[in-house]
Design a protein that fits this description.
Blueprint (H helix, E strand, L loop, with lengths): L1 E5 L3 H9 L5 E3 L2 H7 L3 H11 L4 E4 L5 H14 L3 E6 L2 H12 L4 E6 L2 H10 L3 E4 L1 H6 L4 H14 L5 E4 L5 H10 L3 E4 L1 H8 L2 H14 L5
Parallel strand pairs: 1-2, 1-8, 2-3, 3-4, 4-5, 5-6, 6-7, 7-8
The structure holds erythose-4-phosphate (E4P).
Erythose-4-phosphate binds next to helix 7.
Amino acid sequence: MKIFIDSADISEIREAARMGAVDGVTTNPSLVAKTGRKYLDVVKEICELVDGPISAEVLGISYEDILREGREWAAIHKNIVVKVPLIVEGLKAVRTLTNEGIKTNVTLCFSASQAMLAAKAGATYISPFVGRLDDISEDGMALIDQIVTIYRNYHYKTEVLVASVRHPIHVTQAATLGADVCTIPFKVIEQLAKHPLTDLGLAKFLEDAKKIPR
Ligand code: E4P
């Protein structure tokens, strides 16, 4: 499973990339707003840091606006993936962008039927939001299971990109279910590396090492 970092924070992206943990990056307007910087400037800097798919989201909601913004995003770097909301106008734009050879990530997916339409439109990635479903007492990972099964049944090429990840269990479940990609906040990437027995074991080794004659 590929790991993307779900962040617009350059220092987080740099740190995760140093760990070798970053195959790509996803951004969204909320993440960029936290930086206080222009969306274009942030994305350009990410493109210099990470050599992998980098999702940049359109802000328009009409077919024409999504298409125009999508083409503009795609023109800035070969690794750009245009993030498009899962609405009817968005699906139409995905069809056109796909026909033009532009990669897309269809975002805000909350159902298997939506995921089917995104695949039919030719999306490169579908982003089901597991955490936001869990937040309203639905089962986010059950949706991943459904989408992975449907895409396998019909050999859809669209990759399942698990988004809205809140904790390490989401990540291991995504991998177990056969998702193609999981986009993970920096805090959760750090949590993935942690285990109390590793810390305890290391402390003991370091203590015992002091007893070894030099
Ligand atoms: C990434 O593509 C999504 O925009 C992001 O994972 C949403 O996460 P959130 O539900 O924590 O805002």
